[in-house]
Structures are given as C-alpha cells and as structure tokens.
Amino acid sequence: MQGFEKYKKMYFMPPVDCYDWVKKDAIEKAPIWCSVDLRDGNQALIEPMNLEEKVKFYQMLVDIGFKHIEVGFPAASETEYQFLRTIIERNMIPEDVTVQVLTQAREHIIKRTFEAIDGAPNVIVHVYNSTSVAQREQVFKKSKEEIKQIAVDGAKLVYDLAKNEKGNISFEYSPESFTGTEMDYALEVCNAVLDVWQPTKDRKAIINLPSTVEHSMPHVFACQVEYFNKNLKYRDNVLLSLHPHNDRGCGISDAELGLLAGADRIEGTLFGNGERTGNVDIVTLGMNMYSLGVDPQLDFHNMKEIRSTYEELTNMEVPMRQPYAGDLVFTAFSGSHQDAISKGMACHSTGNDPYWTVPYLPIDPKDLGRTYDSDVIRINSQSGKGGVSYVLKHAYGISLPDKMKEEFGYRVKDVSDKEHSELEAERIYDIFKSTYRDVDCVFCIPECHFKQNDGIEASVSISYKNETKAVTAKGNGRLDAVSNALKQNFNITYELSEYAEHALSRGSSSKAMAYVGITVNDKLIWGVGMDEDIIKASINALTAAINRADLIQA
Ligand SMILES: CC(=O)SCCNC(=O)CCNC(=O)[C@H](O)C(C)(C)COP(=O)(O)OP(=O)(O)OC[C@H]1O[C@@H](n2cnc3c(N)ncnc32)[C@H](O)[C@@H]1OP(=O)(O)O
Ligand SMILES: CC(C)C(=O)C(=O)O
Ligand SMILES: [Mg+2]
C-alpha cells in the first residue's frame, strides 16, 4: 500500500531490558478496576450523556462492583459539574466506593474541580499533562523541564487544596501520551510528582500509565510497565495503574501483559467505549480472568441487562462478535462445532468433572444469563446431524436414533441451503413431522388386536382404496406380526430392520415416540409415530415408513 514511508516508530523502549513479565503465564488476582465510562467513554460519545443518564450509568457501575469510578471532568461543563454534585447530594456514593475526577494541570481548572468535590467522602483527584515528544514540540512548544514543571505545579496545587477538604482525598497523576514519551523522561516526571505528594501506606498515590494512543505491540508496553514497576520511587506506596487505548486493537493484551509486568490497577470501560477505537474493555478483561478460574471481583452475570442499559445510555452498539457479550459469541452454526459441543455438554451433565471443559465454549453461557437452547446451537446450511438432533432433543425432547440422525441432518441442511436462511427449532420440528410422520398414506390401520398364540398373533384392519380388510398374521413381537400382515396383504417385501422408542413428556400429556426403519433394496427408510399408546405409535411409524417407501400403488 502506497504511503507507508510516511510513518515511523513513535514509541521508546526502556533504557534497560525489562523482560521478567515473559516468565509469568497467568494473572493470579483481580487488579483494582477503575471505570472511566463516565469520563473517557462519555467524552467520546457523539452526544455525551445528560445528568440523569449519567446517574443511571453510575448506579450500574456501582452494582457491577467497581470501587473506583472516574465520574467525570467536573470543570468541563455544567452537566459534568452538576452530576458530581448530584451523586454527592443524593448520597449515592457507598462507603467502599471512591469517585475519581479528572483535571488538567491548570490552576483555574483544578480550582473548579475542588469546588465540585466538596463533601464527597472518598475522592481521587486525577491530574494529567502530556509528556510526549509530539505534544512537547507541537502543542505545548515547551522543553522537557518546562513540561515537568507543569506536572509538578499541578501536583502541588492539588496537594495544597486537598488540605482544606474534609473528605478522604488521594491523588493520581497521568503522563498523558505516555506511549510517545521517552521512558526515562516519563519516569523522571512521575517521580517528581511523587516527590511532591510523598505517598504513604495510608495515603497511596496512583501513577497511571496511559497508552493514550496505542503505538506499539503489546510486549513493548509490558516492558515499559515493568520499567516503571522496578524504578518508580515510593513503589510500595504507589498504585501502578494502566489506561490502555485500543488504536492497534491490542488494548486487552496491553492490559494483560501490563498486569504480568507488575501493574496493580486498570482503567477501562464497559465494552471498550472511549476515544477513537476506545479504551480497554473491562468486561473482556474481567471475563478472561474468570474463564481461567480467577474471581474478577466484578459481577457480569446480568450481561444482557448491562448491555442493554449501556446501549440505551450511550447510543453505541455492542457488536455481535463482542467477546462474552455479543449476540453470536456462544453460537455454533457449523456442524463439527455443534457435534463437539453437544457431546461435551452431555459429558458435562454427568457431573464427573467439576470443571467446565466443553469444546468451543470457553465459558458456560449460563454464567452470563444465556440459554443453551436459543444461544448455543443454531441451524443453517453449515450445520450437521449433531446440531440438528441437539435442537430436536432440547426443544422437543425428541431423541433420534443414531442411524437416523445423518439422513435428517442432510434433509435440514438442504432446506436451509435452498432457502438461504437459518432454521428455527419450530421449523426443524415441522420438517421432521412432515418428512417422517405426517406422510401421505395410501393405506392405514384403523384397528389392531393381539393375542398370544405360539408367538404373537395380530388381527389387523387394513384400509386401502375405500375398502377395509381384516388380516391375521403371526410374528415374534407385536410389530413384527403387524408387519407380516401388511406384507401378506399387499404382497410386498422389505426388512423390518430398525426400531426405537422413547417417552416424550410435554405439557400434561405423556406421549411415546416410535421410530421404525425398513430396508428396501439396501436402502433404509424411516417412519415415525407419536401416540399415548406405544403400540399405536409403533404401528404408525411402520405405516409411515412403508408409505414413504412407495411400495404400494396409490
Ligand atoms: C487523553 C484525554 O482523554 S485527556 C482528557 C480530555 N478531555 C477533555 O478535554 C474533555 C473536557 N475538556 C474541556 O471541556 C475543555 O478542554 C476544558 C474546559 C478542560 C478546557 O477548555 P479550554 O481552556 O477552553 O480549551 P483547551 O482544552 O483547548 O485548552 C488548551 C490549553 O490548555 C493547555 N492544556 C491542555 N491540556 C493541559 C494539561 N493537561 N495541563 C496543562 N495545560 C493543558 C493547552 O496547552 C492549551 O494551552 P494554550 O491556551 O496556552 O494554548
Ligand atoms: C487523561 C488520560 C489518562 C487519558 O485519558 C489518556 O491519556 O488516554
Ligand atoms: Mg484515555
């Protein structure tokens, strides 16, 4: 593609090797999560949320379990300011929740921010300024020392103003555009800020490393984080926080590798809303941990409701393939996947293995409020016998005999292929009934009686071409006797080769399903019967099979 010469690497590796994170293979505990939905997410919306919308979103974040919530940029607008005042005045900040506010390192903005937080019980005042080469040279037109001074002045001002507040105030600093900043310089600025704040065990400071614009592969970010983890001053009294964006589509990997590299805290949003390609998606991050057996300390079991509230308030859409939340993320249309899932679910239902290991389903859809019936196996022309028989079993309690599954699978596939559409369970059931049960009959058996007479003797009434005849025949079972009566009456040849039956409980009536396979010229032809009486069901299945085989002239 023409034009690539215009670009170059915009990031900086740390001055020393920082590759200890590579040796770890798992995140062992949940980080401190900070939702920035109401600030970074909100500032990126076409239409930022109004006050009541923010209140509703905030309550959802509290319910999910966030303990740090960046509630806005109070100096940005009257709505932002009033929103914070509202949740303070309505007593909506639980004791264990700390609200966070963002401010530029500018005096009037910081002062306005402090007016907004008055009366809040626990607050993080988050101050930022850009440190990258591009911003220093093009936006601020200042030297490294001057940029560091902006950070230090901002840190001093928030520190001084906090002394007048009754609430519990802590501080966060972000070297904004960190990923375009030389690492030793970014560290120097952060350490200078920490020197102002003098964090202690009881009043930890937060240093937040944003990939304001994601410029590199995730391993580079991990090395940068490790460099900070090893070289920040007051490290024991500092929470090392990450704020990944997603410009290269690696926000999740940045966060996960960054946690391996020593970070304690993650800032992100639900479903990855945020500037440009978004912030890191905390739903995915949390559920990734969950799927590896680590409690994320956030509750997404109500995913459908969370998603619809999010969509309603932001006007954004969660795509069908969005991890854990999209409509199709637990769905298999393809035959081999469906086959493995239905076998895996059958294994799981034995309860022999306490762990979830079902193929193709990284987590149990039920954990997120999804259902196996409508979410997991859906049928189209890519589907196979496993999926089709799974749907019949789960929606209608019909257990097809193994030898029948393939034929019916192809029949359903063919319908879907010709119609170019997905087939719902109801449609599959209709195809099943019209193919094997509700067959056009050239004859039928209105009555049948049996007695024991050296085996079984059947007296069968056969209606054919407006005539009803009584025929008697023997067999080694009732169905065999009826079959012999039909062979004798119509002078036809076939082998009664397959038989299966099972009870079918639906609603108040309990019915039986019978499946009969007859072999004609080496071809197996199936018929199905359903009745409260298992004998009637079997006879209906046999007549359906014979009628389908076209052995008798109409
Ligand atoms: C990466 C991020 O997401 S950062 C957060 C970004 N979010 C937002 O900007 C949303 C809310 N922002 C706003 O509503 C407005 O920008 C306000 C109210 C904060 C400030 O408004 P204004 O002062 O009118 O405009 P603006 O933001 O363009 O100010 C730019 C000036 O601030 C300076 N500045 C920008 N950021 C900072 C900062 N973090 N610290 C110190 N100075 C800064 C710029 O250098 C520029 O200076 P100049 O006036 O000397 O040229
Ligand atoms: C304010 C900072 C943390 C930010 O949103 C960013 O750099 O992306
Ligand atoms: Mg951001």
TrEMBL record:
An example Gene Ontology CC term for this record: cytoplasm
GO BP annotation list: L-leucine biosynthetic process
Domain of life: Bacteria
EC number: 2.3.3.13
Cofactor section: Mg(2+)
Pathway assigned to this chain's UniProt record: Amino-acid biosynthesis; L-leucine biosynthesis; L-leucine from 3-methyl-2-oxobutanoate: step 1/4
Family to which this protein belongs: Belongs to the alpha-IPM synthase/homocitrate synthase family. LeuA type 2 subfamily.
Protein name from the UniProt record: 2-isopropylmalate synthase
Gene name as annotated: leuA
